[in-house]
Amino acid sequence: MANLGNYTKTAEILQKYQFRMQKKYGQNFLIDANILTKIVEAAQITKEDCVLEIGPGIGTMTQYLAEAADRVVAVEIDRELIPILEETLSPYENVTLLCADILKVDLTKLVNENGGGPFKVVANLPYYITTPIIMALFESHIPLSSITVMVQSEVADRMQTGPGTKDYGALSLAVQYYAKPEIVARVPASCFTPRPNVDSTVVRLVKHEKPPVEAQDEDWLFDIIRASFNQRRKTLANGLTNAGGLGISRGQVEAVLEEMGLQKTVRGETFTLERFTELSNRLLRMKEEG
Ligand code: SAM
């Protein structure tokens, strides 16, 4: 039975190993059994599932996951946590522990070496690299069925929102291209030690079987989206032509906007995913035709 997930046991183990929390790794450990149960339930883990956990910390959520899943692969960057994890996870034979930076791991190799997937990702993410981790998971195209993660509330809101709101941007579009985001729970700071100074939210991203739009070139679509939001207060035409490396002229952007029946002064934050896809497909065609 999982014995972590409360303050007393967490403090005891940290004390035993004289472990010092590393702010640079975004270490805020969960100490609330209700939230842990809620995350595992929201992720719909069954005895058939392979789970990838990013940042197991002292192994609190890993214990809950190991009890619910067929197997768990946990990737932790901080080598000081490995002896602790070896102790807290010793009762579980279905956990594989890897000491590595998730952003440097070859995800395809990791999946192939651990049964080939599909994986469910479950994590209380380090907040300083939430977006790069989510993007790396999607862009690696490893077989994933869902990603259930604790993130900063503001990031969860950005994932969910649509055009015309202040939170809407490249992250909203990327997440919604790959998955359907759902807010699972708002989590108070008192559920962690040490308490984070931002609000936290558990969000579940259920991967689409196929993206809701047809981009001729996915990388190009995301180059266009990123360039459009780089200069937020500028018009879309300015954003796209000021971005180095896209190789498109102002004349080409304006011609495409006109073909789409749009003003030259439109802004990216009003564009839906469908409209961005149409824009990027048209720009690609124009670029290829020279
Ligand atoms: N899962 C634990 C829990 O819920 O109590 C710990 C969560 S804590 C918010 C984030 C964890 O991610 C820490 O253990 C931290 O050391 C680890 N971490 C930070 N950056 C990482 C990276 N690049 N790759 C893998 N793990 C990382």
Account of the 3D structure:
With 290 residues, this protein is an alpha/beta fold. Helices cover 40% and strands 18% of the residues. The protein is built from 12 helices and 9 strands. The chain has helices at 7-16, 33-42, 60-68, 82-88, 107-113, 130-139, 153-160, 170-178, 218-230, 236-242, 250-259, 273-289, and strands at residues 29-30, 50-54, 71-76, 95-99, 119-124, 144-152, 179-187, 192-193, 200-207. The strands form 2 sheets. A 7-stranded mixed sheet has the order 4-3-2-5-6-9-7, sandwiched between helices. Strand 3, helix 4 and strand 4 form a beta-alpha-beta unit. Helix 6 packs parallel to helix 8 (170-178). It is elongated, with a radius of gyration of 21 Å. The N and C termini lie far apart (64 Å). The mean pLDDT is 94. The site of S-adenosylmethionine (SAM) has 22 residues, from strand 1, helix 3 and strand 3.
The order of strands across the largest sheet is: 4-3-2-5-6-9-7
Rg from C-alpha positions?
21 Å
Strand content: 15-25%
Distance between the termini: 64 Å
Largest sheet: 7 strands, mixed
Structural class: alpha/beta
Bound molecules: S-adenosylmethionine
Counted beta strands: 9
Overall 3D form: elongated
In DSSP terms (H or I, runs of 4 or more residues), the helix count works out at 12
How are helices and strands ordered from N to C? HEHEHEHEHEHEHHEEEHHHH
Low-confidence stretches: none
